[in-house]
Write a structure and sequence with these properties.
Elements (H helix, E strand, L loop, with lengths): L7 H4 L2 E10 L4 E6 L2 E9 L2 E5 L4 E4 L3 E7 L4 E7 L5 E10 L10 E6 L5 E5 L3 E9 L1 E2 L2 E2 L8 E8 L5 E7 L3 E8 L1 E4 L4 E4 L3 E4 L10 E8 L5 E8 L7 E3 L2 E3 L2 H12 L7
Antiparallel strand pairs: 1-8, 2-7, 3-6, 3-8, 4-5, 4-7, 6-9, 10-11, 11-14, 12-13, 14-21, 15-20, 16-19, 16-21, 17-18, 17-20, 22-23
Family: Belongs to the pirin family.
Keywords: Iron, Metal-binding
Organism: Rhizophagus irregularis
């Protein structure tokens, strides 16, 4: 588990995040959601997505990120596209504010050709940053946000190269190390593949200030990390199974609506 559930006050607006590997007949068969967003990044394999809004796609080599707003209710399934594929993915649950928890469900396919890459060169290419959401330098990602989120897929190619990336000072942030070894921040925290770094906001107001995150590739191979930073919602959270609300009445209402068939059919 990258971000464990039930500790959302530590990484608000992020509810939980998991890395998973599976093949047929594994995956996530038909199930409901309400009150939050899911962000799924597929690193390997082919994942078939279908939902009750009529969306259907295969996420993998061409569609790499799936950003789903479950809103007032959605049924969907995410399973291997065939019996041979081995799927490797991470999925983040992103909270929605109270006034937008019951908006219409929607879906974004973020394909390889619309996710821009920022390249940083010295004599040769030193680092590349795929901008999924928010900005890096003057590059803006394609994801449409309800809660402001910065999402980057960072690869530092050159050993000992230090990347400096601005982060809003009032955002929570977490970094997951996919490959390699690196040091992070002014205190040069050493992390390796499979480690997670969680950082709290430096400011708790609506400031426009930024802090600079330093990431250094400490190995001889590529350092690849996934970075998410988001503005805290600062509201009560109640989560039960696939439903997220602000109080228990929201969960009871979600369960009732689901059993009454108000989430439509796939």
């Amino acid at each position: 588990m990258i971000l464990p559930p039930n500790k959302w006050e530590l990484h608000d607006p992020f509810l939980m995040c998991a890395e998973d590997w599976f093949r047929h007949p594994g995956g996530f068969d038909l199930h409901p959601h309400r009150g939050f967003e899911t962000v799924t990044i597929v690193f390997d394999g082919l994942l078939r997505h279908q939902d009750s809004k009529g969306n259907s796609s295969i996420i993998g080599p061409s569609i790499e990120v799936q950003w789903t707003t479950t809103g007032r209710g959605l049924l969907h399934k995410e399973v291997p596209a065939d019996k041979e594929t081995n799927v490797h993915l991470m999925q983040l649950w992103l909270n929605l504010p109270r006034e937008q928890k019951l908006i219409e469900a929607s879906y974004q396919d973020l394909t390889k050709d619309i996710i821009p890459t920022r390249e940083i060169k010295k004599e040769e290419l030193a680092a590349k940053i795929r901008v999924i959401s928010g900005t890096s330098g003057n590059i803006k990602g394609p994801a449409k946000n309800i809660v402001p989120v910065k999402a980057l897929d960072i690869s530092i190619l050159e050993p000992n190269f230090t990347l400096e990336e601005p982060i809003p000072a009032n955002y929570n942030m977490f970094i997951y190390i996919l490959e390699g070894n690196g040091s992070f921040g002014d205190d040069n925290t050493k992390l390796q593949s499979g480690n997670v770094l969680i950082s709290s906001p430096l400011r708790n107001d609506d400031c426009n200030e930024e802090s600079v995150l330093k990431i250094t590739n400490e190995g001889v191979n590529v350092l690849r990390v996934i970075l998410f930073a988001g503005k805290p919602i600062r509201e009560p959270v109640v989560q039960h199974g696939p439903f997220v609300g602000n109080e228990w009445d929201d969960i009871i209402r979600a369960q009732k609506d689901f059993y009454l068939g108000k989430f439509a059919e796939l």
